[in-house]
Amino acid sequence: MKKAIIDSFMYVLILAAIQIVVGTVTKFISQTADVTPMVTTLCSVISSVLTIALFAWRKWTPMSGQYINQRPWFTQFWVICLALGSALPMTFFTEQVGLELPPDYTKLFKGMINSDLGFLALAILAPIAEEMVFRGAILRRLLDAFDKRWHWAAIVITAALFGIVHLNMAQGINAFVMGLLLGWMYMRTRSIVPGIIFHFANNTMAFFLYRLFPNAADKTLVEFYGGNMTNVLMAVAFSLMIFGAALYQLNFRLQPKR
To answer: Using CA atoms in the order 53, 57, 60, 61, what is the torsion angle rounded to 10 degrees?
Structure first.
């Protein structure tokens, strides 16, 4: 168990090191000029590609087609519903507890959204890289090391690390809750595919929302819904119904690993 925990922290440090090195090199290349959104997005793309390549090459995240070969396509529909149903309630919760995305992160996020490589960076490469690190490497090691009765602890630890690496409370809380769901799905299937699909759906929804409504990042939910709290609560309730239905379906469809 001790080795699994050490390995888990090593994987996080490796991910952080890749991001730091790529960021440093990118800033050096851009010299003294302001770092443009394209440069920042390119940095994210390179970081994700290096992470995916390293974890696949070193086999820290074992690659297998076993789960895909079962053709669980309808199950993935419910995974998408789970992601879509969780987004609005989590946004509502973070607003109610007074958590806001720091201005620097908001600016970074807007820049990446409007970049030509934004969708590739945020919706495709980031989900693959993060699921390979946190579920395919860290959670896998912890699940193997912990007694089955303590698998919930492995999921909580991984979710906490996933939240911490986001480096701000607003995203961190959301990532922690998301990490619990992603960890549960991985524990059931021992595949990162459901997690990638969930991650893809969540990030894609955010990407197109802010593309269609550029000022959405600067508004609260109440402001977005025209100042009507009743509409907000109805939207949150509807989202929770989708979330509940998806969770119910996945509880049956995601078969525990035997």
So the answer is: 60
Tokens of 151: 């698998």
- Reading the block at residue 187, the tokens are 């524990």
Per-residue CA distances from 58 to 43, 132, 190 (Å): 22, 12, 19
| DSSP for 18-33, written as a single string | HHHHHHHHHHHHTTTS
Q: What does the block give as tokens for 160?
A: 């906490």
* Token code pair at residue 44: 């994210």
Where residue 256 falls (left for φ over 0; alpha for ψ -120 to 50; beta otherwise) is beta
Q: Which two tokens stand for residue 236?
A: 């949150």
Model confidence pLDDT, tens digit, residues 80-124: 999 999 999 999 999 888 888 888 778 778 888 888 899 999 999
Nearest alpha-carbon partner for 16 in 136, 133, 128, 132 = 133
| Residue among 130, 128, 110, 131 at smallest CA distance from 40 | 110
Q: What is the pTM of this model?
A: 0.91
Contact 55, 141 (CB under 8 A): no
